[in-house]
Amino acid sequence: MELAPCYRIPRIVRGGWQLAGDHGEVDRERALTDMAAFVDAGLNTVDGADIYTGVEIMYGEFNARRAARGLPRLQVHTKFVPDYGDLAEVDAAYVRRIVERSLRRLNVERLDLVQFHWWDYKVPRWLEAAQALATLQKRGLIAQIGGTNFDTPHTEALLDGGVPLASMQVQYSLLDRRPASMLAPMGARRGVQLLCYGTLAGGFLTERWLGQAEPVETLSNRSLVKYKLIIDEFGGWAAFQELLRALKSIANRHDVQLSTVAIRWVLDQPAVAAAIVGARYGNRIGNTLEVFRLKLDAADHARIDPILAAYLGPGGDTYNLERDKTGPHGRIMKYDLNKS
User: Fold this and answer.
1) Residue 115 has what DSSP assignment?
2) Residue 50 is part of which domain span?
3) Would you give the distance in Å from CA 192 to the centre of its chain?
4) I want to staple 278 with a disulfide (CB 3.0 to 4.6 A). Which of 18, 99, 178, 252 is the partner?
5) Residue 255: count of CB within 10 angstroms of its CB
């Protein structure tokens, strides 16, 4: 998939949030070793962030080991996420400092893709910060610029302000179809492709949860906490189970995993370049690769579509619910991780 001229990515990008420690203990050496399995399978691109503790350093170490053996390196998509408390002070020097730190951590001279996030549109420096990234791109420190979690009007404002966005990373799944209404059509018109996280809803869209009672105990990691709220927005636990049963019947028909059907559905949506699938290790890479042999047909869509019509899921534009710090989605966020 060509994300930008002369820049290609696989349609599955390995997510890196699971390596940051908020999803349980990480065996660092195993994680580093298993990265090679993804590259060898053709999945040579990973997603990370300046705020994912230790993840940029881990990717940099893996690539240093690869370089020492004369092997091709990972393509690394990182992010620029200024702390909420710093937004009013973000200037070109701030942007350059964070970008240069990512360069050091990743041990590269140019970042493959920097994805820009801004917590609060009411703090008016977001366009200037993005334009500072564009300046660093012209100076050769950044290859491609993307965004993360911008809604449609602000994405267009970035483009109109001269920021050459190649992509927008957004949450997109069978449970959360907010990008379909406004962002995806605009992206198709203006050449901004979607990189989609949450395609498996933190693991909820898997066989593990089929037929299970709604959890009442504290969930075990931040992903599950986040995506349980999305299930509630989708229509509740009974609606979620109805969807899982439909996906399982389709999976059985094609002899694949339920999760494969969920990923394939996202990849088939307009303007979607890739699905970001989180993984700490490589033990399920075979299941992930199933997506490339699956084609959903009319019978499959006839099974899914009535459920999606009945349960519309979260409303509004992309990420607007999460921007309300007083609401359930906003209250679970960590807003000041760049200093830590």
Assistant:
1) E
2) 6-331
3) 15
4) 18
5) 10
